[in-house]
Amino acid sequence: MRYTEKDIRNIPLTEFMAALGEKPVKSFEDMKLYYAPQRDDPEPMLVVNTSTNKWYDHATDQTGDIIDLAALKMNPTLYMNPHDFILKYMNEYEQGKELSAMVRRPQQPTIINLDIKKVKLTDFMKALGQEHPVAADGNLRIYNAPYDANPGPTMVINTETNLWRDTKSGAYGGIYDLAYELTGSCNMSELNRYIAAQMSAIRKVEVRQEPEVSKPKRGMRL
């Protein structure tokens, strides 16, 4: 899955702590004891209450929710908004879990008569319903970000490099990175199918599963 702004208040603090690389040292009923992620303490001092989704710091007597903890943990020179910090860590954490699951899951090959790496991002945006950019400046095309819950003109495509960047979140990359932002999936087969399905709106694209080849049965030796 991919987290958005509206999901932040419902993210379990235990999941956020896991995304920060922290594991509970002790657990008792609804309480989990952690090392405070914003400090290098010799003893675990942060308690997370899983029933209220709040935390309490024994070292400072501070308490709060996920946003308060993110504000303490984040580097203010890199992040101005704790929401951005939370979304970055949670989505990277989810991406890591998906990659692990993908490695363990057998994949059925997909045949697509489309060279996705050569698809122009401007054509992909047309397929997504944005026929024209909001603005243009030389080789730059500005679009309303299709992956944002409140889309604004923050997505910039460089037509020379065929890469994009979001001026709000800092996200960037090629067509697969854009498809990830839209779907939250990092499964290559799923991304290929998604891109092909979208492109089929403006050109003929065939997507089919490669038939499984049955292995010959081994004869019984007497």
Structural write-up:
- By secondary structure, this protein is an alpha+beta fold.
- The protein has 2 domains: 5-100, DNA Primase, Chain A (Alpha-Beta Complex), CATH 3.90.580; 110-209, Alpha-Beta Complex (DNA Primase, Chain A), CATH 3.90.580.
- It has helices at 13-19, 66-73, 82-104, 121-127, 175-183, 188-199, and strands spanning 26-28, 31-34, 46-49, 54-57, 63-64, 110-112, 135-137, 140-143, 155-158, 163-166, 172-173, 207-209.
- A hairpin with a 4-residue loop joins strand 9 and strand 10 (163-166).
- It is elongated, with a radius of gyration of 23 Å.
Q: Give the name of the CATH architecture of the largest domain.
A: Alpha-Beta Complex
CATH fold-level topology of the largest domain:
DNA Primase, Chain A
- Give the topology string: H per helix, E per strand: HEEEEEHHEHEEEEEHHE
Structural class of the helix and strand makeup? alpha+beta
**Which CATH class of the largest domain applies here?**
Alpha Beta
Integer count of domains: 2
Tally of strands = 12
Share of β-strand residues: 15-25%
Mean pLDDT: 86
Strand order of the largest sheet: 1-2-3-4-5
Helix content: 25-40%
What characteristic shape results from the CA principal axes?
elongated
Largest sheet: 5 strands, antiparallel
Uncertain regions spanning at least 5 consecutive residues: none
Q: How many alpha or pi helices?
A: 6
**Radius of gyration in whole Å, from Cα?**
23 Å
Distance between the termini: 54 Å
